[in-house]
């Protein structure tokens, strides 16, 4: 265990934000879960008691008749905003006094940094480069993430859970978001920050970065495993595999929706459902491809003269 | 006409004892400040910076556990970044000869230069974290749902511009860290489908390293003086203007869409497909 190496990675000035983000995320997930749980208990209680549901104020916080429903912004909100501004300023001041912004040697195109890492918030994308060609990892995937985020309000037809924390009323959407945000985005950043070393090789936390390490692994393409050699056959085979994934996956998503989320499925238009299906499968394709690569050393699934996937 | 000058002077000096009655004061502050509900509302409504708020909000909407305050903190960090950024611009020349030296100069000679640069750097990182957590909260509370769909989209664009602001700033010190991060980042643009010379179908459309999308981003085929200048202009002028406009829309829409989304009264599954009845949502 090389504690010094671990400390060097964790204390690198530009890595400090991600080190700080992890406990921060844990705290906020806890805070959200606590409120979601309380609301779910309340919802269950109200659903079992129609009379109470009619009179209850529908929040977990206390409310009594005669209490004011609204408060003045001045001072009740403004004092919080003022306090928040002061606290943020203090944190920023202390941080800026204790930790210096990084400054390396002057830019030198003839001396490549190893590893050359993007800023921490882009390391998820850089990590994706291991599993996909740059046109997917660097261009198509980011575009799909942005488009995917933007269509969320238009494909989520569930009217429940608007304006309060809940888990039971929105299991699918919250589960999907947690998967995409925490498992894919944040975990990939953590891999990129703490695990990738020189040559973008896998070094476990605490393992010494060996700049001379070579890894003798041969990556194969999926068609090779099946003994396909001609270019046309490879292209056709890949098209079938990728197309088959979306078709079969689409069918699985469809049956799961019909079975477990009948109400939501009924509310969705075919276009809404199709978009959800496609984006969901594309998101799931990322960990699948990662698995293929890490477990079976498979580089490409679909090989054509113009692009490889 | 005879004027009693001493009496007039005395009267005017007496008047100064209550400056809130002077013409100067009343021209600036349009209402009194004794603690009445009316004055509390006017304090917000008659102030251009505060009137983004409603005069009154739901009693639960001030709970930190609901909003986490991340949207406001992000905006506050943007203000800090603008402020420190303008000060940094006084000491920085976006040219290959000067840029790195300017940063050294800031670090070692400019009074408070080091803490200025540090604050700018760390506020930028905090802003990225703030945006992510804000989005996370908005998602978990379902606040993107009707009628706030459009504002969620503005928010996604603001996320993109926050990341781009951070990324364009990365190159400006002109050191190895920024240079290679931007090299790695823009190399991906080579591979843009159709528009990059190494991307699928790019070469078929006549893309070369000298006319593709990466060339447009860098103002050249390598990360050099033009890339530094472009980065600088995007960072200091282009993106801040676009982001500011989007922020105006974002904040305006928060109000127009009925204030912050909650904490709203919980809805039961049985009520889901019926028009909403019962307790009103917060801010409605």
Task: Please tell me about this protein's structure.
Chain A is mainly alpha-helical and 309 residues long. In chain A, 62% of the residues lie in helices and 1% in strands. Chain A has helices spanning 3-11, 16-47, 50-55, 73-76, 78-98, 123-128, 134-155, 171-195, 222-225, 231-260, 262-267, 270-296; one strand at 70-72. The model of chain A has no long low-confidence stretch (mean pLDDT 91). Chain B folds into two domains: 7-56, no CATH class; 67-257, Cytochrome Bc1 Complex, Chain C (Up-down Bundle), CATH 1.20.810.10. Chain B has helices at 5-16, 23-28, 37-45, 64-67, 70-89, 99-108, 113-140, 149-171, 176-190, 213-218, 225-256; one strand spanning 56-58. At the A-B interface, helix 2, strand 1, helix 4, helix 5 and helix 7 of A face helix 3, strand 1, helix 4, helix 5 and helix 6 of B. Strand 1 (70-72) of chain A pairs antiparallel with strand 1 (56-58) of chain B, so a sheet runs across the interface.
State the CATH superfamily name of the largest domain in chain B: Cytochrome Bc1 Complex, Chain C
Based on helices, strands and strand pairing, what is the structural class of chain B?
mainly alpha
Tell me which protein chains meet in the greatest interface and how many residues each side has. Answer: A-B, 102 and 110 residues
Determine the N-to-C terminus distance of chain B.
64 Å
Query: Which CATH C-level class of the largest domain in chain B is it?
Result: Mainly Alpha
Tell me the number of strands of chain A.
1
The portion of residues forming beta strands of chain B comes to: under 5%
Give the DSSP E fraction of chain A (strand runs of 2 or more residues): under 5%
Overall, the morphology of chain B is: flat
Shape of chain A: flat
Helix content of chain B: 55-70%
Mean pLDDT reading of chain A: 91
Number of helices of chain A: 12
Oligomer: heterodimer
Average pLDDT value of chain B?
Answer: 90
Radius of gyration of chain B: 27 Å
Judging by the overall fold, what is the CATH architecture of the largest domain in chain B? Up-down Bundle
The helix/strand series of chain A, from N terminus to C terminus, equals: HHHEHHHHHHHHH
Helix content of chain A: 55-70%
């Amino acid at each position: 265990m090389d504690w010094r190496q671990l400390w060097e990675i964790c204390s690198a000035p530009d890595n400090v934000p991600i080190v700080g983000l992890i406990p921060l995320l844990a705290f906020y997930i806890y805070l959200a879960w606590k409120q979601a749980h309380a609301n779910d208990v309340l919802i269950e209680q109200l659903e079992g008691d129609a009379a109470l549901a009619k009179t209850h104020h529908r929040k977990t916080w206390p409310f009594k008749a005669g209490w004011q429903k609204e408060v003045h912004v001045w001072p009740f909100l403004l004092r919080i905003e003022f306090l928040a501004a002061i606290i943020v300023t203090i944190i920023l001041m202390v941080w800026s006094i204790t930790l210096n912004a990084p400054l390396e040697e002057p830019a030198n195109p003839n001396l490549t940094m190893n590893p050359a890492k993007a800023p921490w918030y882009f390391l998820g994308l850089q990590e994706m480069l291991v599993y996909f060609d740059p046109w997917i990892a660097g261009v198509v995937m980011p575009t799909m993430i942005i488009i995917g985020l933007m269509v969320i309000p238009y494909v989520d037809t569930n009217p429940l859970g608007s304006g309060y924390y809940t888990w039971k009323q929105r299991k699918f959407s919250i589960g999907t978001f947690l998967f995409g945000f925490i498992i894919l985005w944040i975990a990939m950043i953590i891999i990129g920050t703490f695990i990738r070393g020189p040559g973008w090789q896998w070094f476990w936390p605490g393992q010494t970065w060996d700049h001379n390490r070579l890894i003798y692994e041969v990556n194969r393409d999926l068609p090779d495993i099946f003994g396909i050699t001609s270019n046309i056959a490879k292209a056709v085979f890949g098209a079938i595999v990728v197309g088959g994934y979306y078709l079969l996956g689409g069918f699985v998503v469809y049956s799961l929706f019909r079975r477990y989320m009948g109400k939501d499925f009924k509310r969705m238009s075919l276009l809404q459902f199709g978009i959800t299906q496609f984006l969901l499968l594309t998101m799931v394709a990322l960990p699948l491809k990662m698995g293929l690569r890490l477990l079976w050393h498979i580089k490409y699934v679909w090989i054509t003269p113009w692009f490889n996937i | 006409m005879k004027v009693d000058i001493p009496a007039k002077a005395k009267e005017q000096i007496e008047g100064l004892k209550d400056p809130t009655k002077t013409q100067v004061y009343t021209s600036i502050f349009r209402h009194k400040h004794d603690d009445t509900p009316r004055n509390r509302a006017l304090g917000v409504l008659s102030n251009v910076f505060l009137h983004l708020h409603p005069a009154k909000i739901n009693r639960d909407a001030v709970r930190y556990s609901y909003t986490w305050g991340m949207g406001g903190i992000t905006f506050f960090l943007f203000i800090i970044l603008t402020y420190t950024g303008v000060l940094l611009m006084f000491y920085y020349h976006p040219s290959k000869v000067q840029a790195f030296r300017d940063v050294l100069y800031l670090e070692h000679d400019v009074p408070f230069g080091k803490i200025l640069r540090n604050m700018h750097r760390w506020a930028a990182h905090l802003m990225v974290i703030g945006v992510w957590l804000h989005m996370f909260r908005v998602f978990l509370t379902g606040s993107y749902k009707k009628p706030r769909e459009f504002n969620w989209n503005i928010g996604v664009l603001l996320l993109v511009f926050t990341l781009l602001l951070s990324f364009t700033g990365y190159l400006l010190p002109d050191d190895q860290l920024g240079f290679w991060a931007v090299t790695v980042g823009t190399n991906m643009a080579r591979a843009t489908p159709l528009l990059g010379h190494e991307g699928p179908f790019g070469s078929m459309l006549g893309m070369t390293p000298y006319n593709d999308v990466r060339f447009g981003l860098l103002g050249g085929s390598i990360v050099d003086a033009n890339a530094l200048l472009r980065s600088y202009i995007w960072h200091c002028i282009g993106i801040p203007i676009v982001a500011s406009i989007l922020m105006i829309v974002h904040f305006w829409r928060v109000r127009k869409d009925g204030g912050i989304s909650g904490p709203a009264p919980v809805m039961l599954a049985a009520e889901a497909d019926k028009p909403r009845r019962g307790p009103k949502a917060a801010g409605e």
